[in-house]
Amino acid sequence: MPASQPALFATGDVLLFEDAEGGIRYRPSLVDAATAARWFESLHREAGWRALQREMYERTVDVPRLIASYGLDSPQLPVPVVEALAAVRAVVDAPFDSVGLNLYRDGRDSVAPHNDTLHALAPGQPIALLSLGDVRDMVITPKPGTRGRRIRVPLEPGSLLLMSHASQSTHDHGVPKTRDAVGPRISLAFRVRLPGSDLLRGYRPAS
Ligand SMILES: O=C(O)CCC(=O)C(=O)O
Ligand SMILES: [Fe+2]
Fold this sequence. Notes:
It comes from Cognatilysobacter xinjiangensis. This protein is mainly beta.
């Protein structure tokens, strides 16, 4: 499917979709390659990675990637997450309080097209996705009734993808499996939770 041509802005930001809350935008280089590599190595080694399962269509399926999650007030917060949060906060004014980390070990790991769990997210607040490690494509697909086309964005190490809360109702996003020889990739998803909500509802440790 042909990709649409996103608008390129003077800052280097690419606006992928516009809405009243900032839409979906991509900044190829939030931090430099050396910083991204340092954070990757440290998190790959030391984050609290877990294999999870979830119920889907009355079956239990393995989540095809490893996951770690922290409240941003956690005393166990890895140093790279503290530094990454500062880099994100320098360009995004949002009261992030949680981070979900994904580790895609190779091209067989993925996340299926989805929108982030609106029941758990504070209205009006964005989701900030920082990428580290090998490049993987993100595919962003308008939901039925939303204008625009499917977009494929290669997420560079050190890049930031910012998605508005509103965009979770208009678009799905996913990281498809690939047959290309790719090494591991880590993403950090900074979010603002609704008080008392559980971002990992429906997930449990793999047996
Ligand atoms: O790895 C990514 O960039 C996307 C992750 C994602 O969509 C999620 O954690 O909800
Ligand atoms: Fe997501």
